User: Fold this.
Amino acid sequence: DASLAAPLTSLARMVGAPLVADPLSQVRWGAHDRSVIVDRYDAWLRHQPTAAAVAPDLVLRFGGLPTSKALLQYLQHHAGAHQIVVDPSQWPDPTLLAADVVHADPRTVCAMLLASATIGALHGVSVVDREWLPRWQHADASASRALVEYSARIDEPFEGRALAEVASLIPGRGTLFVSSSMPVRDLDAFAPGDARSIRVLANRGANGIDGVISTALGAAAARVGAEPGGDGGGPLVLVIGDIAFYHDMNGLLAAKLHGLDATIIILNNDGGGIFSFLPQAAHPAHFEQLFGTPHGLTFEHAAQMYGAQYRRADTWQSLRDAVSSGIAGRGLHIVELRTDRARNVVLHRDAWAAVAAALAADA
Assistant:
C-alpha cells in the first residue's frame, strides 16, 4: 500500500532503523523519504560475514512474507530476535517466527508508535545503536555498486539484468506486473528503487504460475478508467516466464476483446528456470523431463493469433527499444527475450560473487 510509505519511513527514521523494502510493498519506488530505505539486501545478505554483522534485536514486519529467500533465511537464522508482525489478515506468519502478531491496520500502528516517540517499549530496548542504520546503508551501497558494475559487463541475455532494464523504463503512474517464480525474485534482487511513483504487482498469494496473464490484463482493465493524476491511468507492463505464459496464453484474448493496452515481456529459457537453482538440478538423469520441461516453443505465432504486435529482442538496446515502443503504443505488445537456463544460473552466482568481493573489500 503506497499510503504506508510516509508513516513507515517516518517510523524508521525516528528509531534509526533500516526500512527493508520488498518490491511488492509499494515503498521501494515513490516520491517519499528514501534515506532509510534499503533494497539490495537480497544480494548482500547472502554474504555471511556481512549478514552476521547485522544481527537484530527487534524485527517489525508489516505485511506478508518477504519475496527474498536470503532475507527470509536471515530472519530464520535470527529467530531469537523479537519479531512482531503487523497485518490485518487472519494468519500472516506461516513461518512461526513471530513472537507477536498484531491484527490491525498498519497505518494505525505506525501512527501510535510515532505518537509515542519510542519503539523500545515493544520489547524493552532502551538504547538504540546509532551505527545500526549506517551499517545497513553501507552494505546496501556496496552491493548496489557491485551489481550495477557487474550487470553493465553482461552482453549476453541475463534475466537479472532484464528485470532491472524493464523496471527502469516504467514511467510514473505505470504498473509493473511480475510473474511468480524467477521474475519477481530477479526484480527483488536486481532492480533498485527510485522516486518514480510506479506500482508493482504479482500473484504472490497462490505462488503459482496459472492465470498470470489474466490477472495482469485485469489490472490493465482496471486502470483504463482511472482519473488523470490519480494512482492509476499509466501503462501496464508484464514480465513473465515462458511456462507461465504458455499456461495462461488464452488469457490474451481479453486484450483483444476489450481493447486493452499492455506490454508483455516473455523471458523464454525453454522451461522452468527456477528449478535449475534448486537441489534437484544436481540429478540430471531425470531433471529435464520432470523439472526443466523444455517445450521448444517461440511465441510469435501466438502473438499473431491474438492480434498483438511482436518483437524479438536480442540485445539490451533492442529490448529497451521494444519495451519503450510498447509502452508508448496502443494495444497489446509482446516482446520475447531468449535466455539459456544453465547459463542463467552461472550469471546469477557470478553476480553474488561480485557482491561478496565488493563487501569484503569495503569491510
Summary: The longest helix spans residues 132-153. Residues 227-231 have pLDDT under 50 and may be disordered.
